[in-house]
UniProtKB/TrEMBL annotation:
It is an enzyme of class 2 (transferase). The lineage of its organism: Bacteria, Pseudomonadati, Planctomycetota, Phycisphaerae, Tepidisphaerales. This is Uracil phosphoribosyltransferase. Allosterically activated by GTP. Belongs to the UPRTase family. It comes from the Bacteria. One of its GO terms (molecular function) is magnesium ion binding. GO terms for biological process: UMP salvage; uracil salvage. It comes from Humisphaera borealis.
Length: 207
């Protein structure tokens, strides 16, 4: 599949396997999700442009490199919040926007209930984060919203994606790259990812 980056790293897979386990409680789940999100940043940001910057070491002046553009992190509420701290640990200068989107449990259609974005988001590199890409409805709605806000450079970062969700993002926003730690088999008739990890929001927040 084009425009999908599967981050198949042994340390991430070890943590993801523990996270999927139904006996993992919300405290441990939060810790693992935070750690995986931080590790994923390394791959997700690999092609970001850098700009030369002169630095004085204790011995010499030299030219280092720093990220060229500011970064905005946009978690899709609620479950995206579970990845935010892990990403922020690696990108501490990032600003944060929030998009509140939930799936109607019957229709599975996304319902947007909150949005607050930094005013200059259009001139930043945007990471849209949500652990689950299931039907793709929430992710696709969130990308549309960010495009309306002028965002031109964004990546969708999730933990577990379904083939159906990936197809939805490709169909609606083919230029947006998806980064995921796993591509699972399919959706069940309630829109849950199989084998998946259950309801990410409920597992993070203990609801
Ligand atoms: C979950 C998840 C995604 C969405 C994915 O959120 O965090 O946002 O479902 O499903 P989709 O790809 O079919 O749209 P949920 O709607 O459960 O809301 P919550 O995070 O508030 O629990
Ligand atoms: N949202 C979740 O939290 N889990 C799924 O499997 C699908 C959507």
């Amino acid at each position: 599949m084009t425009n999908v980056n599967l981050i198949d790293h042994p340390v991430i897979q070890t943590k993801l396997t523990e996270l999927r386990d139904f006996t993992t409680d919300h405290r441990k789940f939060r810790t693992l999700l935070d750690e995986i999100a931080g590790l994923m940043v390394y791959e997700v940001t690999r092609d970001w442009p850098t700009t030369p910057k002169i630095v004085q070491t204790p011995l010499e002046r030299m030219t280092g490199r720093v990220l060229s553009r500011p970064v905005t992190l946009v978690p899709i509420l609620r479950a995206g919040l579970g990845m935010a701290d892990g990403v922020l640990k690696m990108l501490p200068d990032a600003r944060m926007g929030h998009l509140g989107v939930y799936r109607n449990e019957q229709s599975l259609e996304p319902v947007t209930y909150y949005q607050k974005l930094p005013p200059d988001i259009a001139s930043t590199e945007v990471l849209l984060i949500d652990p689950m890409l299931a039907t793709g409805g929430s992710g696709s709605a969130a990308v549309s919203f960010l495009k309306k806000a002028g965002v031109t450079s964004m990546k969708f970062v999730c933990l577990v994606a379904s083939p159906e969700g990936i197809q939805t993002i490709h169909r609606t926003h083919p230029e947006v790259p998806i980064y995921t730690a796993a591509i699972d088999r399919e959706l069940n008739n309630k829109g849950y990812i199989l084998p998946g990890l259950g309801d990410a929001g409920d597992r993070i927040f203990g609801t």
